[in-house]
C-alpha cells in the first residue's frame, strides 16, 4: 500500500514536471529537460559556454533550456542580440528574480534591479555623478594615473622575480572604484581590503559557476551548508563595512560639497526631501556594492588577460612599446586623448578584451512583457541569457575570430576601427554603466605599464595556457610573470 502511494506520488510529480516543462507554443526549441534538473546535466557547469555554442549550432541562434522547471532563452550571435537588446530594448531590459545574484542584492541597487523607476533613477544618478566627479575630465585621469604609480612602485620592487599579478591588479582596480565612491583609497596591505578583494573574487566564481547554477535551479538545496552560503555571508560582511564608511560620511559631510559618490547620494536624498523614494539607505548600500563588484574583477581580469597576451606574443608587445615611446616622447605620463595617436596599441587592447570575453554570459536579463525574437514568441518574465562570447568570436564578423590578432581592429590603412560585433560591455539600455571608466582605466594602466616595463613569460613555466576560468567574470588561469624595467625617453 505504502509502496503504491509512493509510486503514485512519484508519477504525479513527474507528470507535473512534464506539464511545467512543456515548451509553450512557438517558444524557442531546445533539448528535452530531465525531471528536477531540467537541462542542467547537459551542460558542463565548470564552463557552459562551449556547450551553449554547440546547442546553438543544433537548435539555432535563439534556443531554450530549462534550469530546473524554469525556462530560459539563450541568445547567440550579433543579429539576435541586436534585435533583442536594441530593437526591442525595453522588452528585454528586465532582471530575473529567484537567482543567487538577485537574492544577494534583494533586487535593489542597479545591476539586479528590475526594469522600472528605481533602476532608471539610480542608473541616471550614478552616470551623472561619475561624470561630475570627473569622468571625461582630467581629474578621473589623475585618479587612475595615481593608482598606476602604486602598481609601478610595486612592480619595480619585484623586477626580475616571477610574480602572480592577480592580487596587484585586483587591488588597483578596486582602489580606483573606492576613491570614486569613498573619496579615499586603501593601502594594498590593509587587512580588510585584502579580505574584501578575496571575497569578491571568490563570489564571482560561485555566482554563475556550478554552485550558483545549482542554487538557481534547485531551491530546496538553498538552505544546505554548500559553497553559495559563503557568497551570502561574504556579501553581508562587505555590506557591513561599506555601511561603516557611509556612517562616517554622514558624520563629516558638508551639504552640497560632495567629496565622492556617497556625499552626492546624501545630497540627493536631502534635495528630494521627505518623499525621497526610490532613494534610501538600502538602495544606496546595494548601489555602492554593485559598483565595487562590477568595477573590480572585470577590469582586473581584462588587464591580466592583456598582460598574458603581451607575454605570449613578445613581437606584438614590442610593436606597442615602439608606438607608445614615439607618441609619448617628451611627456611624463599618457593621457586618454593619446589613444587617437596609438592605433596599434588600441587594437591590441581591444583584441585582448575580445579574446578575454570577461563577462561571457553578460548579466542575466528577463523579459518585461510578452514579446517575440527571431520569429519565436517569448512570454513576460522569461529568463534571458546573452551569450556575449558568441558575438565576440562570430566567424562572419571577424577577420580572425579564433586567434589573437590585432588586425581584427585595424583597417587597410592601419587605422583603428571597432567592428559592431565588439560588445564586451553588452548593448542596449542595460549596457555596462562603467564602460567609459573601464575604457579609460584599461588604456592608461596598460600604456603606462608597457612604457615602463617589459613583460616576460618565465622560462620554467611551460607554454602559456589561455583556457579561461569561468564565473560571472571570466579570468585567465593564475600565471606568473617577470617584469624588466625599460628606459623611458622623456
Ligand atoms: C572591462 C571592464 C568591464 C566589462 C567588460 C563590463 C561588462 C559589463 C557587462 C557585460 C554588463 C551587463 C550588461 C547587460 O546586462 O546587458 C555590465 C553591467 C554593469 N557594469 Fe560593467 N563592465 C566592466 C567594468 C565596469 C566598471 C568599472 C563599472 C563601475 C563603474 C561597471 C559597472 C556596471 C554596472 C553598474 C552594470 C549594471 C548596469 C545595469 O544593469 O543597468 N562595469 N558590465
Question: How would you sum up this structure, described in words?
Answer:
- With 490 residues, the chain is of the alpha+beta class.
- The chain folds into 2 domains: 1-80 and 366-392, no CATH class; 93-357 and 393-485, Cytochrome P450 (Cytochrome p450, Orthogonal Bundle), CATH 1.10.630.
- 50% of the residues lie in helices and 8% in strands.
- The chain has 16 helices and 10 strands.
- Strand 8 (468-469) and strand 9 form a beta hairpin.
- Helix 10 (228-252) packs across helix 12 (281-312).
- It is globular and about 85 Å long.
- The mean pLDDT is 92.
- The structure holds protoporphyrin IX containing FE (HEM).
- Its cofactor is heme.
- Heme binds at residue 432.
- InterPro entries: Cyt_P450, Cyt_P450_CS, Cyt_P450_E_grp-I, Cyt_P450_sf, Cytochrome_P450_fam2.
- It is found in: Membrane.
Amino acid at each position: 500500500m505504502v509502496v503504491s502511494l509512493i509510486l503514485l506520488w512519484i508519477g504525479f510529480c513527474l507528470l507535473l514536471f512534464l506539464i511545467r516543462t512543456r515548451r509553450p507554443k512557438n517558444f524557442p526549441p531546445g533539448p528535452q529537460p530531465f525531471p528536477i534538473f531540467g537541462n542542467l546535466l547537459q551542460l558542463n557547469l565548470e564552463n557552459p559556454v562551449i556547450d551553449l555554442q554547440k546547442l546553438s549550432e543544433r537548435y539555432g541562434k535563439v534556443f531554450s533550456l530549462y534550469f530546473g522547471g524554469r525556462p530560459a532563452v539563450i541568445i547567440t550571435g550579433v543579429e539576435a542580440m541586436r534585435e533583442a537588446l536594441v530593437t526591442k530594448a525595453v522588452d528585454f531590459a528586465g532582471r530575473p528574480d529567484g537567482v543567487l545574484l538577485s537574492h544577494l542584492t534583494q533586487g535593489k541597487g542597479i545591476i539586479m534591479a528590475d526594469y522600472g523607476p528605481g533602476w532608471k533613477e539610480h542608473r541616471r544618478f550614478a552616470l551623472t555623478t561619475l561624470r561630475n566627479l570627473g569622468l571625461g575630465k582630467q581629474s578621473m585621469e589623475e585618479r587612475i594615473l595615481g593608482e598606476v604609480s602604486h602598481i609601478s612602485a610595486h612592480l619595480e620592487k619585484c623586477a626580475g622575480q616571477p610574480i602572480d599579478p592577480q592580487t596587484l591588479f585586483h587591488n588597483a582596480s578596486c582602489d580606483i572604484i573606492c576613491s570614486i565612491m569613498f573619496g579615499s583609497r586603501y593601502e594594498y596591505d590593509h587587512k580588510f581590503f585584502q579580505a574584501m578583494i578575496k571575497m569578491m573574487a571568490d563570489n564571482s566564481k560561485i555566482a554563475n559557476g556550478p554552485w550558483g547554477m545549482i542554487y538557481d535551479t534547485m531551491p530546496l538545496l538553498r538552505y544546505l551548508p554548500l559553497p553559495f552560503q559563503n557568497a551570502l555571508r561574504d556579501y553581508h560582511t562587505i555590506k557591513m563595512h561599506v555601511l561603516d564608511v557611509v556612517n562616517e560620511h554622514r558624520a563629516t559631510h558638508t551639504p552640497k560639497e560632495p567629496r565622492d559618490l556617497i556625499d552626492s547620494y546624501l545630497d540627493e536624498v536631502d534635495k528630494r526631501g521627505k518623499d525621497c523614494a526610490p532613494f534610501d539607505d538600502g538602495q544606496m548600500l546595494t548601489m555602492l556594492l554593485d559598483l565595487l563588484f562590477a568595477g573590480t574583477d572585470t577590469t582586473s581580469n581584462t588587464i591580466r588577460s592583456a598582460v598574458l597576451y603581451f607575454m605570449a606574443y613578445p613581437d606584438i608587445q614590442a610593436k606597442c612599446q615602439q608606438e607608445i615611446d614615439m607618441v609619448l616622447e617628451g611627456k611624463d605620463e599618457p593621457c586618454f586623448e593619446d589613444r587617437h595617436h596609438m592605433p596599434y596599441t588600441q587594437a591590441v587592447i581591444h583584441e585582448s578584451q575580445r579574446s578575454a570575453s570577461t563577462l561571457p554570459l553578460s548579466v542575466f536579463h528577463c523579459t518585461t512583457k510578452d514579446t517575440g525574437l527571431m520569429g519565436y514568441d517569448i512570454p513576460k518574465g522569461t529568463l534571458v541569457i546573452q551569450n556575449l562570447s558568441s558575438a565576440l568570436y562570430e566567424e562572419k564578423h571577424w577577420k580572425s575570430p579564433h586567434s589573437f590578432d590585432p588586425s581584427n581592429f585595424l583597417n587597410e590603412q592601419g587605422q583603428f576601427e571597432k567592428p559592431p560585433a565588439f560588445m564586451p560591455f553588452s548593448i542596449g539600455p542595460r549596457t555596462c554603466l562603467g564602460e567609459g571608466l573601464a575604457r579609460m582605466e584599461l588604456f592608461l594602466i596598460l600604456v603606462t605599464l608597457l612604457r615602463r616595463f617589459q613583460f616576460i613569460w618565465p622560462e620554467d613555466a611551460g607554454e602559456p595556457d589561455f583556457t579561461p576560468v569561468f564565473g560571472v567574470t571570466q579570468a585567465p588561469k593564475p600565471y606568473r610573470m617577470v617584469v624588466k624595467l625599460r628606459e623611458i625617453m622623456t
